[in-house]
Task: structure prediction
Amino acid sequence: MRHNDRVSSAGVSTATVSTPYVELDRAAWARLRDRHPLSLTARDLERIQGTGVPLDLQEVEEVYLPLSRLLSFYVDATTQLHQVTSNFLMESTPPATPFIIGVAGSVAVGKSTTARLLRDLLRRWPSTPTVELVTTDGFLYPNRVLTERGLMHRKGFPESYDRRALLRFVSEVKAGVPCVRAPVYSHLVYDIVPDEHIVVERPDVLIVEGLNVLQAPQPRRDGRLGLAVSDFFDFSVYVDARIDHIKKWYVDRFLKLRQTAFADPQSYFRRYAALSDTEARATALRIWEEINGPNLEDNVVTTRGRANLVLTKGEDHSVRRVLLRKL
Result:
């Protein structure tokens, strides 16, 4: 928090400098749960939790349950707005319009865990029984294409994604197309899985998770700005933390993966499984410094200000504060 800020008795920051966000500390945000019961169990968390992302039921109760409550309000209000618009246009059968949520953040910050948590929590609200989750990994170009274009060392950077295909997918879902398919990416083989797709059929809510989902629109050849994926979002979440903390989490996760995903004989990263702690740490740091660190600083963290809500984590991976964009 900035030293010029004041904090109200409710734990809400009232900054002396104008800001588009309301800032709440963890205690103030947790109170917004408003006694709503938590239906997730410890077993559910085991399924949801990502490698190297500590998570317990208290964190879910105090951070993610209030967020799911807020999102349920947004879904209801947006549905009503669509109905009003449909009535104005005198449409006899208003098209189904899914509510789309973007979840962004760095590698190793826990955005995938956040997306899975929101999916499971929102499925328990009466107004959102059908909630689907798609990651933008499926829209990476296949390794063959990345190799041809000299982009294998830039995997995860904006230019490594088939942006047109991602835009087409999100726009079709938003338009209520009955059946929309998304490619499948395998972290095991580090590539797109041929002839395999995720099928999305008019969900109440679609969560789109990925590094670059909040990227600004790109200029077209004629000088005008094109569409951005986030143009189709009704709400967006950015999972934030200090870069030095994220770097440590990335290295720690790399070390743990030697005994899990890297140890699989089919893994693209099988060669890392036998590395010593010293060798593995050096390898992870090199990958971070050459790829993930520059991508975070140049392309990911720069999109943070475009989010509707920012979850800021401390060194222990727990959320310490929440920034909610004012309407």
About this structure: The domain at 23-325 is CATH 3.40.50.300 (Rossmann fold). Helices lie at 26-31, 42-48, 57-88, 111-122, 143-148, 163-174, 243-257, 277-300. Confidence is low (pLDDT under 50) at residues 1-9.
